[in-house]
Amino acid sequence: MSDAATRLLVDVGNSRLKWALADDHAMLVSAQALAHGGDPASVVELLPLAADIREAWIANVTGEAHGERLAAALAVRHHLRPRFAKPIDGLQGLRIAYEDPSRLGVDRWLALLAAWSRDRAAACVVSAGTALTFDAVDDRGQHLGGIIASGLTTAQQAVLGATRFAAAGPEFQYTAGLGSDTEACVRQGALHACVGLVERLTARYGGQRRYLTGGDAETLRPYLAGDWIVVPDLVLEGLQQMPA
Q1: 20 forms bridges with which residues in the sheet?
Q2: Which one of the listed residues 107, 135, 216, 233 is annotated catalytic?
Q3: Is residue 89 annotated as a catalytic residue, yes or no?
Q4: What is the per-residue pLDDT across 43-79, written as a single tens digit (0 to 9) for each?
């Protein structure tokens, strides 16, 4: 491993906890993902961590109570005192569009920070998960703002209802065309809504680089025009940029 301090990076999403080990220069252990079932602290004991970790950073979107439980579990299990990432206006030259920068979702900010830090170029970042988000930054590092919309699964649940959606299963195939039964029509509607929204925004705010992340990134990618860079661990890359 590197001589630099080894960091534990943890990205707590609505359904999964992703983690990796890194230093200031590279990912030392590639990202791993664990379903947490609504309780991120419950999977801490499953993390096979190295003994030389000196720092732990967490991006948490599940609320303060879950974050506190996760921090306590890391302290007991791995003797770590994690720090929770918060948006920092101006870090790495990235300026946040929000009047109150603290209100920008930490996952969106970290993904945008990672994209900006890669090339220092105008870019857009699409995160396709429970929610579909789009954020853009210009070539001076100014965040232009973003949108939050329903993700693929959320959109289908909104139309069919959670029970009927679960009964239809998620074992299906998206296509570029139309559906031939009610469930397929809803599925295709969600796909076209997500793809259409992304392409409409990209046409205006796409920039020189286009990044796609989130659990449904690989599902959306075949239907998006243009060159997209799929980076499943963009939030973890952003955590790697947090100051010591």
Answers
A1: 9
A2: 107
A3: no
A4: 887 776 666 788 889 999 999 999 999 999 888 888 8
